[in-house]
Amino acid sequence: MTSDLLAPLDLAFWNIESDRHPMHLGALGVFGAHSPTAGAHAADLLAARAAAVPGLRLRIRDVWQPLAFGSAARETDPDFDPLNHVRLHAPTADFHAVAGRLMERPLERGRPPWEAHVMPGEDGVSFAVLFKFHHALADGLRALKLAAGVLDPVDLPERAPRAIEPPRGLLPDVRKLPGLVPGLVRGALSDVGRALDIGASLARSTLGMRTVSALTAAPTGTRRTAGVVVDIDDVHRVRKTAGGTVNDVLIAVVAGALRRWLEERGDGSKGVAPRALIPVSRRRPRTAHPQGNRLSGYLIRLPVDDPDPLGRLDSVRTAMVRNKDAGSDRGAGAVALLADHVPALGHRLGGPLVGQAARLWFDILVTSVPLPGLGLRLGGHELKEVYPLAPLAPGQALAVAISTYRGRVHYGLVADAQAVPDLDRFAYAVSAEIEMLLSLCDA
């Protein structure tokens, strides 16, 4: 039985979790079906293939050894049974309604923390699969790789083999130690400076704007999901006319949708500029923790109070350029990097407190999850739509995840069901905002 210690951020996710705030991410995929029995066949395939994917056999256990006291590690579950993880549900006409209820339920921590829920469509020509992965097991990229392991195989271009360096003796490395010491000291001082910068930026980010009550919530543990599909060509039309990147346009659409939604609810948008956390992957190949989360982030104010859609896009573009120029290792959005400097026992004891502090850090999560350009299938059935679903931090009512697949952008929305009973209205506002931007760019 092999095991490896969780990376610091993985350990933080493992300890932040509570019954009302499970820390799993998800993806709802909708497939075309050749027959009414396609969903049942898909469930059988998923269970059969899961046994052959090593990453799906990994559970997480606590570690109390002297050098890793309070940590946790991944290890192969000797009693792994795919049937404990793959569930076939009754036919439904509303995939998102079922997905919302399933996203409420924490994953069982005593076995590999993932599930696949298959939902046949009542129409007989579609079925959906909701994948759930604990954030301590996988980030978005790792979750995609695990899910791909149980979908139909695809032909990918082979990567050139990596040259293997010959082993070196210990003595030359020991001789280099005196020369490395100044660099180590500079690195430690740089870490202190970075932590101070992050703390100061976080304090500044809490000042000067009205609290958005619609984006905050007492923890009810309920969940609702919704999805919106946008043509990527429309996004490019806006980008080419108004400037910025594709990501800038997609974030600006969220800002505009929030404005429309708040105005429709009667909450008003005057003085509203919620802090959006935009996660940034810092994953590097062949690191010491290839399966671990390596995340930082940018924190920007969404210009919800600006009545001009193109003005909102310009504000988002400016804020993102400023964040990129500063780098992803400084600023309030980089709080996740501090996890590397907290001992394992600190994560275990302070996890609940850190989770409750999320509302002081940001108001809404807006994250992008990359997907392959290749068409994906399950049992020969084509994946038509895929909605990424992010976890909700304590005290937060709405999270937005975005993926581009086969020429279409998919917004996956997750909300506290009691705080945001009108999530469908926010979804409609996303569609209306992109239409508004298109009309302005075509004028």
Brief summary of the model shown:
This protein has helices at residues 8-16, 38-50, 95-104, 140-148, 170-205, 232-242, 246-265, 309-326, 344-356, 358-361, 423-442, and strands at residues 3-5, 24-32, 58-63, 71-76, 86-88, 114-120, 126-134, 224-231, 275-281, 295-301, 364-368, 377-378, 381-389, 398-405, 408-415.
Task: Outline the structure in words.
- The protein folds into two domains: 4-149, Chloramphenicol acetyltransferase-like domain (Chloramphenicol Acetyltransferase, 2-Layer Sandwich), CATH 3.30.559; 193-371 and 394-442, Chloramphenicol Acetyltransferase (2-Layer Sandwich), CATH 3.30.559.30.
- 37% of the residues lie in helices and 22% in strands.
- The protein has helices spanning 8-16, 38-50, 95-104, 140-148, 170-205, 232-242, 246-265, 309-326, 344-356, 358-361, 423-442; strands spanning 3-5, 24-32, 58-63, 71-76, 86-88, 114-120, 126-134, 224-231, 275-281, 295-301, 364-368, 377-378, 381-389, 398-405, 408-415.
- A hairpin with a 2-residue loop joins strand 14 and strand 15 (408-415).
- Helix 6 packs across helix 7 (246-265) and helix 6 packs across helix 11 (423-442).
- The longest helix has 36 residues, at 170-205.
- The chain is globular and about 60 Å long.
- The termini are far apart.
- Mean pLDDT is 81; it is low at 156-177, 184-205, 285-290 and 332-341.
- GO terms for molecular function: diacylglycerol O-acyltransferase activity.
- Residues 6-249 form the O-acyltransferase WSD1-like N-terminal domain.
